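Need tokens for this chain, all 740 residues.
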Amino acid sequence: MEGASLKESFRKDAQELNIKEYIKRLPSWTKHLKWPGIIVGALMLLTIIGYATIVFGGRFVVEQKDLVLDEMTTVETKDGEVVERIYTKNRKIVPIDQIPEHVRNAFIAIEDSRFYDHSGVDLKSIARAVYKDIIAMEKVEGGSTITQQLAKNLFLSNDKTWMRKTKEVMAAKYLERKYTKEEILELYLNRIYFGEGAYGIEAASQHYFNVSVSDLTVPQAALLAGLPKAPNSYSPFDHPEESKQRRNVVLARMAATGVLDTDEMISFQGSTLGTERKDESEETWSNSYVDLVIDEAAEKYHISREELKRGGYRIVVEMDPAIQRIAADQMKNGEFVPASQGQAEGAFTLMDHKSGALVAAVGGRDFKHGDVNRVKTKHQPASVIKPLAVYGPALMNDNYDPFTLLSDSRQSFAGNFNPSNYNDEYEGEVSLYEALVESKNVSAVWLLDKIGINYSKEYLSKLGLPTEDKGLAIALGGLSKGYSPLQLTEAYRSFAQQGKRVEGYTIRQIENRDGEIIHEHKLEEKEVFNKQTAWYMTEMLQTTVEEGTASAGNYPKALAGKTGTSQLASGKGNSNVWFAGYTPEYVGVVWMGYDRAEEEQWLEGGSSYPTRMMKDILSKVDQQKNLTASFSKPEGVESLPEPIDLPVVNDLEGKLTLSGLALLRGTLEWTPSSDQRVVYRIYREEEGEDVNVGEVTGKGSYKVSAFGIFDQTTYYVVPYDPLTGAEGKPSNSVTLRWDL
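Here are the structure tokens for all 740 residues:
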């Protein structure tokens, strides 16, 4: 190894001696060019390196992620009506083939007339700019092409330095190599700022002219092309004269570059600005609904609010704008429950119960983005819970039907629970039907005690209403956490749709910025009640609206529903009032109350207020939609008979006729009820225990068996309900005897 190293060392020394010998033999005049040649060579090398850096170094300036422009997300109805826009920057990207040629020509004429001739940098423009900078001894003019402007806006700051300018050129060269002229122009027109919050040509067209870019006229295009230089100074709204002058400069440049005839230019310069300011009033009617959309996008589809602001999505929602406007107006201006301190708050939901689509949602009386959305806040549900926690589950048990008699007497239950009816009146026994229609508290608690709390909670869980509470107060909605209007809407849907529950939703589908559907709602139903139970509940809740606790207000079409009122422990007033119900098309809830129930503030009215509001909203919707007049009975279920109202008989009379030797026959007569289903039981008074001697149905007379002339008998009539098995009050008594 050492021999090889010595050999290599000798070889290098020999080469060095040869070079020196060669230099000695050069002519003497060449020795004077040694250092200038080195300097020239170095300069040439630096020039080559600099040029290569400018040409090929753009990849280190350009960030690919910056080429993806922030774009607004639109929230639209299925009919294409834009409800709201969600954005950080008000920008709607449009492809270049949707931007008319005269619009493109306007920008090229004023910003970069040689756009299609250069490769990113226009040397003539740069030379002119450099000359003016030298004369002024400062940076006064730019010679930037459209590509350079795009590079600056996307990747660089606005500092007027030579280093920034160098990077700008590097990036421009890179863009020209990687993209076509049309792609660069598309990025430019969608990127630039036009003032007043409008980014990109489409947003600017909508903002200043209330039209899409595809509908811009030549003068309108020229006006927009003149804005980016100084958007505030040339605003057609704030500075119309300056805007017109700038527009006319653009039109002149278009004529100079040959894209307009002189006659056309003169004609267009004489036209008005043609601007149309949109109504910028702060309408909030859709805010509650869109907040639900944003939440659903995050929770169900994992698209954050920040991503929506920049991602350019198209969210198609199930809102019915007509209903949403009606509901928002009623919540803001309609009659509200009076309250002890200031105004009470409220919430409203309305769902198409066939699909589960929320067609309207209002989260407060004057809801604005950022407010608490009360559609999703939880409160004590009060008696609204009774059909869900007690009566529905009971009807799923073979031991109960709508006419099963329930206890309605003051009593104590386990745990020293002593419920009372709201009017403190008791009937001893009532049917399940009557207990529901009249919202009997004791009967609901008594029935929950019979069917079992755990049994009830199983159904509540299936309805999307889980609770950790374990007491009989569940029957009256006395819960530790409560439920939201949206939860109760979903639960009541089960009665409207043959016992099946769905989760409510707002988003029909989501498209990305390329128009591809990336998410789409799918209907998923879960059966909770059978069809018969659901239909029985519908019929009973209809009666509740027509004759029971939900009779306040007026609505001429089919409506089934239930009210609820939560009282403060102090008894001063109420904390929450509710109405939950459904029509053949929709299911919805109205809640009114305070965000936080406190003893220092209370409601001075009851559930009649949300009931009336729901009926007012439905009445206005009916005027536009012509809602269905009656519910349709599903196939395979039985209709519920009308309850029997037992009459009070107080005009019983009797008469005798001779029917044979020493025998008499009697006839009892009274005024019968118009309901011919009433059974009348005839009793004969006897010592010890009275005897039932017979009965008639729907009639007002009964013939008594023959008895002796010297006998006397006393009779009375008791109305009987064959549906519930309950007897009414005995009539007056009549004694039959033969008076000689």
